[in-house]
Amino acid sequence: MTGLVILAVFTVLAVIGSWISPYDPSALSAATMSPPSAQHWLGTTNLGQDILSQILVGTRGVMIVGLAAGIIATALAVIIGVTAGFIGGVGDELLSALSNIFLVIPALPLIIIIAGQLPSSGELTVAFVISITGWAWGSRILRAQTLSLRRRDFVEAARANGESLWRIVMFEILPNLTAIIASSFVGTVTFAILSEITLAFIGVTSISDWNWGTILFWAQSNQALARGAWWWFVPAGLCIALLGMALSLINFGIDEFVNPRLRNTGQNARTMRRRGIRARIGFTPVAVPAQPAPLAQPAAPAQPAGPGRKDEA
User: Fold this and answer.
1) Where do the H-state alpha helices sit in 105-229?
2) 137-178: per-residue pLDDT in tens?
């Protein structure tokens, strides 16, 4: 839930960021290298540009590249992986060889070369280049899972009933791959966002298009760290860390949702916490036995009434 909330906040900022930014992110002002103040909440650059406006406007570029690359790469992974696993034979061998080729190619250097050679490296162009190099791993996972599904009883029953090939794939195979597809999509979005920020940071993409990587590029170029201008690069770094943490939490949630063993482990942990039982940290949770309560001292035997007391009675 925390990951979804953080991702929703960044998605909203990507939509309305350019409308609520207090200044033009490229506008110059006299307040150069100003720390955070009431006029500029996150400070200014060496040219007097407002950093808060740059972050708000740059959120859109980061989210567009991440989501577009995630959609394209996931679609390619589903088409190639499910097709290879379902048809088998020569087609499986050819598609598996194609996946293996893209798996062994170093993705980031290839992205840098392709993006650097393109005449126009806009957001969608960068997303397309990233998706071309980011589909192979998801394809391999989907192929393996499809191989285990294609001979299941419900698939054989669908064949026996005369179901068409596309109907078996759409209504029998793909619903059982939903969790893996969702996890692959989240992982690809994370990879695409980090790749886009890296490309902008090293100056491969246009340095006039604002995103978090562009902010870090200008901060590095003007030695913000050496000049003590922490406000120039810390906010962009925190945004990257928050978005990456949100996507990781969503991925963990998907794993826990689809894996009964992880879900039961989480439920058992919550039950143990409610009962006040602490588990040792390790690969296998072991409950720490409670300290035994001290034994109660036996009560002293009653003293018989003495002769004096009898006399008194």
Assistant:
1) 107-117, 123-133, 136-149, 153-160, 165-168, 178-201, 212-221
2) 888 888 888 888 888 888 888 888 888 888 888 888 888 888
Dihedral over alpha carbons 51, 199, 122, 128 (to 10 degrees): -130
Q: What angle do CA 93, 96, 97 make, to 5 degrees?
A: 85
- Model confidence pTM above 0.85: no
Q: What angle do the packed helices 51-87 and 212-221 form, to 10 degrees?
A: 130
**310: pLDDT strictly greater than 50:** no
How far, rounded to the nearest angstrom, does the alpha carbon of residue 234 sit from its chain's CA centroid? 21
- Closest to 214 (Cα-Cα) out of 126, 97, 136: 126
For the chain, counts of helices (H) and of strands (E): 13, 0
The percentage of the chain sitting over the pLDDT mark of 90, rounded to a whole number, equals 6
- Residue 162's identity, in one-letter code, is G
CB 65 within 8 A of CB 72: no
Distances (CA, A) of 162 to 8, 73, 152, 156, 170: 44, 32, 16, 10, 15
